[in-house]
Amino acid sequence: MNKTTSIEEAIAAIPSGAVIMVGGFGSPGTPFSLIDELLRQGQRNLTLIKNDANEAGIGISKLIEQGRVDRLITTHIGLNKTAIEWMNSQRLVVEFHPQGMLAEKIRTAGAGSYGFLTDIGLHSEITRPEQLLEWQGKQYKMEMALKADFALLHAARADRFGNLIYEGSAMNFNPLMAMAADQVIVETPACFEPGELLPNQIHTPCAFVDRLVVLPQLTQEYRIMEHHVRH
Amino acid sequence: MMSDIESLLKRAVKEIQPGSILNLGIGLPTQLLNYLPDDLDVLIHSENGVLGSWKQAPREQMSASLIDAAGAYVSTVEGSSFFDSAVSFAMIRRSKIDLTMIGAFEVDQQGNLANWKIPGKFSPGIGGAMELAQKTPRIVVLMTHCDKQGRSKILQQCRLPVTAYHCISRIITDKAVMDVTPEGLIVREITEGMTPDQLQEITEARLIFAEEMCSL
């Protein structure tokens, strides 16, 4: 079994109009190289599902800035003024969810279920009347599972079967999205032979992974960003 | 001389119980990190999947794969753990976070919190605020008493879209410390040199002054 493939071939599987989950919370866990290849290949009318919009000029913000994204399903885009401008000028449709609800919608799809009941935001303006449900005298809100055609993920380490290990806070949405998309494309800077990663250290088992892209090097975007270092 | 914000933050540190789990919202609460004593017995939860995050790491130990929810390259304390976003919010919704300190655009005397949207002006998204506000047993709001135009941010009834209802336990501002109670807002501490009348003057909500009020 060998899931490794070239970055060109992996991204060429994605058609215009696709619904794509993208890992990452801020920069950690964001598959910058896969995103850049998607930018280069020119797919359009994309729906992206990501915790945030990265920062202006990097990651999925590049796709937004080139008008390639129709719709963004997210939790918070406060760190990206450009994305806010695109939203405010109606060039980008943005759908906001509470962060844990987005995670749980993805987790639910990844577990092969179709929805769950919650009380988060029950009485707030984010709840539509048709989502309300009463059961044994209590009121709940129905949240549907969220699937995607593709997931683009970043793993710190992998083996060529596609077993994945994440690092630090770069885990975030990656293992959830790995389970919730029909086609899962993962980039990693460190690919090992099967057996070299210990079974009890694997975060995402290879059954969920379709294509693995081994990065020859990590670009500037994966490094520490000076503007986030307080002096 | 200490600035008003500095004394607010120093006062907020006293809210932390030893042995507790704490979440610090973006804004004033994350600034609190700089005021925490290094031997404090606390685990800081960060929504992006860290329990035990701490102050900014020394340069040589910084990792591009480890930030807190505010984007700082943090260090971690002994006994910390990393996990995915679903586990992170399971921790929140199961009320395992003891205390959340959170910023606000507006609060009101019923303990309602508005901090996610100013319609037509500012709506960057909900982030983790709604779940934290709804499910943390103790919510302490840290904010300035008035906005930049000098208008009260402590209202009789929130006007902005509410993040969560009846969720606030305590409000700490640069002017006062107030508890939300069934009777209303009880002022426990007031900034030195300010009289109860002067505080009520700059506050839209009706204030009740505790008999034994100390200075902030």
Automatic annotation (TrEMBL), chain A:
Q: Which residues form a coiled coil?
A: none
Note whether Transferase occurs among the keywords.
yes
Q: Which Gene3D superfamilies match?
A: Glutaconate Coenzyme A-transferase
The superkingdom listed in its UniProt entry is Bacteria
Tell me, what is one Gene Ontology molecular-function annotation carried by this entry? CoA-transferase activity
Keywords (A to Z) from UniProt: Transferase
What InterPro entries does the database record attribute to this sequence? 3-oxoacid_CoA-transf_A (IPR012792), CoA_trans_fam_I (IPR004165), NagB/RpiA_transferase-like (IPR037171)
Q: What is this protein called?
A: CoA transferase subunit A
Automatic annotation (TrEMBL), chain B:
A Pfam cross-reference name: CoA_trans
Q: Which GO terms describe its molecular function?
A: CoA-transferase activity
This protein's source sits in the domain of life called Bacteria
Kindly state which keywords UniProt assigns to this record, in alphabetical order: Transferase
**What does the sequence similarity comment in the record state about its family?**
Belongs to the 3-oxoacid CoA-transferase subunit B family.
Name the UniProt record assigns to this protein:
3-oxoacid CoA-transferase subunit B
